[in-house]
Amino acid sequence: MPHILLVEDDRPLAQGVADALAADGRTITVCGSARQARQAMESPIDLAILDVGLPDGNGLELCRELRLFSRAPVLFLTACDAEADEVAGFAAGGDDYIAKPFRVRALRARVDALLRRAVGDDIVERGGLRLDFAHADFTRDGVGIALSVPEQRLLRALVSAPGQTLPRETLTRQVWGLEAVEENALSVTVRRLRKKLGEGYIQTIYGVGYRWGTKDDR
Ligand code: CA
């Protein structure tokens, strides 16, 4: 399950973001200061969301420190144009920023995109499946399977949160972003994916969404 560090001193904002990301199956550590963040950075993280203006420091400094030992992508939260300019001049290739005020939905989409890139290097092996996302190389019992881009994204979303039920709305956004899609697009994609992977990997949780795993995991 991806672990996200959120450093933001505006408590209601931090809570809103944390709740939304938790609903997407992420594990969140929330810190209200640079000092707390330094402590939290001692645990492995997959993505950091850093407010630029902190009471005892700033997000750019934290990012610089994080970069010494971690390649986790960073999403900066900026409060004014000057901060946005500063971040734009600073951010490394994989990083991004979002200006306040922002819609939580937009932030979730950015987080999805950053994590998708970050977890892209993993190779997952399970049962007869071998899933190499970085090279889009997928095999079942040694035989190659062709997956469309939406199928790959859906698979990656599920695999990134093993044993976790992901709501339909979350998965739809992770696969198609903010694009408008037909209401049954997700069900259709799940059906195709099951056919290609075999039964038992993608569980339907009725009225909620889907989960990666087998019955033995419970
Ligand atoms: Ca702040």
Portion of residues within helices: 25-40%
Largest sheet strand order: 2-1-3-6-7
Number of separate strands: 14
- Major sheet attributes: 5 strands, parallel
Q: Report low-confidence residues grouped into runs of 5 or more.
A: none
Main traits of this protein?
binds calcium ion, 24% strand, 14 strands, 218 residues, elongated, alpha/beta, single chain, four-stranded antiparallel beta sheet
Question: What would you note in describing this structure?
Answer:
This protein has 218 residues and is of the alpha/beta class. The chain has helices at residues 11-23, 34-40, 59-67, 81-90, 104-118, 149-159, 168-176, 185-197; strands at residues 3-7, 27-31, 47-51, 53-54, 57-58, 74-78, 96-99, 123-126, 129-132, 137-140, 143-144, 165-167, 202-205, 209-212. The strands form four sheets. Strands 2-1-3-6-7 form a five-stranded parallel sheet, sandwiched between helices. A four-stranded antiparallel sheet has the order 8-9-10-11, with no helix packed on it. Strand 1, helix 1 (11-23) and strand 2 form a beta-alpha-beta unit. Helix 1 packs across helix 5 (104-118). It is elongated. Calcium ion (CA) is lined by residues 9-10, 51, 53-54.
